[in-house]
Design goal:
15 helices; elongated; six-stranded parallel beta sheet; single chain; Immunoglobulin-like; 30% helix; TIM Barrel
Length: 469
């Protein structure tokens, strides 16, 4: 009986001590949880949105992209002599680079217009001259013979020169191919007597120079040709907003098909999830006035944009000095349907005074229609009261892998010094306005080392630093 009482007393004592130990540990582990709402705002974030013509200064406004196409005639007026200075001046490239904007680029050999003309240099026409002058419903112009070996060889040299000038950094971020067909769209009006495009194996020779010339850019094609899936390219739709043409284009993306434009029919390869790894771009159709696309056809336009998972639209797009002023609400709806939209929805700060460690856990969401396509790091900072960055932590979040409507989690451990900076603050001062230091989050541009993305979260911010506590 005595032994039984002793055993019972021992068990009770053990439970009391265990409970006391658990309470002691709990008291030494503090967890603070924060949740953040989204905001009803339009963000002009990098590498997404509208891409107005680079040479139309007043059209650009706050957009982060500009569109530039260059004809071969403009690029190389004399054999081996490239007029980069003239092209850059006409398109305000120094201004756009300084402003932190990026370029959507297309190289063109045939651009239909009202008058008789050629868009390749005279010296190249003299070396080839076996194309077709045309006068069609598209306009007038000259369609080169894209199977001509001399033309192919000089084209490779021209693209190489473009890459040496513009492919060395991320300034030219999206390259639309380009090079072949009317407007560089890889089609010709062969039913009006223009020679068809060459077979797939020859057309490949127009693609390959771009792969080495622009290693820092994302390449896009007008249709899902075999090269799209083979080389991980994106796609663009120059009939955005036109229901019939866009539905047909989307069917190529989702189901594939056969393209009858070349001499030998060419297979279109289905890439239904192309937007998850490569950008979708293009421009609005010219079949309807912009005012109609933004009013009577707005719902249809927004639906087509959502189905396409588009990241950018241009150069046919609402322009800053006209359409954005006339239809601000509608323009904001269109912008809200383009590209990525990241934000932190939850933050947990776990301070373990027992081990002396502090862990920060984040949940990152993409509320947009597409991911970002470049590896920009998501970072956590300790920000001083003067706005200076006291410490910086790069998370292991890959924004390129957070698709539309999805989220990802990450965790990081603060250094002992940073933990002390946060722990030793008076509790009543722990907010972005009063504390000595505060936790913040941001998405950095690797080229500048600075956060440059607006986040979709309702918190205090300073520039592009968004405060977590």
């Amino acid at each position: 009986m005595v032994d039984k009482r002793r055993t019972t007393a021992f068990c009770v004592l053990f439970m009391i001590l265990a409970a006391a130990a658990i309470i002691a540990v709990i008291r030494r582990v503090r967890v603070k949880s924060y949740s953040y709402d989204t905001v009803d705002a339009v963000f002009r974030n990098p590498m997404m949105g509208f891409a107005p013509n680079a040479d139309y200064f007043d059209a650009v406004g706050d957009n982060t992209l500009v569109y530039m196409d260059v004809t071969w005639r403009e690029l190389e007026p004399e054999e081996g002599v490239f007029d980069f200075a003239g092209i850059e001046e006409e398109n305000f490239l120094d201004t756009w680079r300084t402003a932190g904007k990026k370029v959507v680029f297309r190289f063109v050999c045939d651009e239909p217009s009202d008058g008789e003309h050629i868009d390749i240099p005279d010296w190249l026409y003299e070396k080839t001259g076996d194309g077709t002058f045309y006068d069609t419903a598209y306009g007038r112009g000259y369609s080169p013979d894209y199977s001509n070996r001399t033309f192919i060889e000089y084209h490779a040299k021209a693209v190489k020169a473009l890459g040496e000038r513009y492919g060395v950094d991320s300034f030219f971020c999206f390259i639309e191919l380009g090079s072949v067909g009317h407007w560089g769209e890889w089609h010709v009006k062969y039913d009006d007597g223009i020679k068809r495009l060459p077979p797939e194996e020859l057309l490949r020779e127009y693609v390959e120079p771009y792969l080495t010339a622009f290693p820092n850019a994302k390449l896009l094609m007008r249709r899902p040709f075999p090269y799209v899936s083979e080389y991980g390219m994106g796609v663009y739709n120059d009939m955005t907003g036109h229901f019939g043409d866009t539905e047909r284009w989307l069917s190529w993306i989702s189901e594939g098909g056969t393209y009858s434009g070349p001499e030998t029919p060419m297979e279109l390869i289905a890439v239904p999830e192309v937007w998850k790894s490569a950008p979708v771009g293009g421009e609005f159709t010219s079949a309807y006035p912009m005012s109609e696309l933004l009013t009577d056809r707005l719902d249809e336009t927004l639906s087509l944009l959502a189905d396409s998972h588009m990241t950018f639209i241009g150069p046919m797009c609402p322009i800053a000095n006209k359409d954005e002023k006339a239809y601000p609400g509608e323009v904001h709806e269109v912008l809200g349907s383009l590209g990525y939209r990241y934000g932190v929805s939850r933050c947990r700060i776990i301070d373990n005074r027992f081990t002396g460690s502090m862990v920060v856990k984040l949940t990152v969401n993409n509320h947009g229609t597409a991911p970002m396509y470049f590896d920009w790091p998501l970072c956590v900072y300790l920000i001083g009261s003067d706005g200076s960055v006291v410490s910086r932590y790069e998370t292991d979040i890959r924004l390129t892998d957070i698709y539309a409507g999805e989220s990802a989690q990450c965790r990081l451990t603060l250094t002992d010094d940073d933990r002390r900076r946060l722990v030793e603050m008076p509790a009543e001062s722990k907010n972005a306005g009063k504390s000595e230091v505060a936790l913040a989050v941001g998405i950095e541009n690797p080229d500048t080392g600075l956060p440059e993305v607006k986040l979709d979260m309702e918190v205090e911010s300073r520039g592009n630093y968004f405060f977590l506590n």
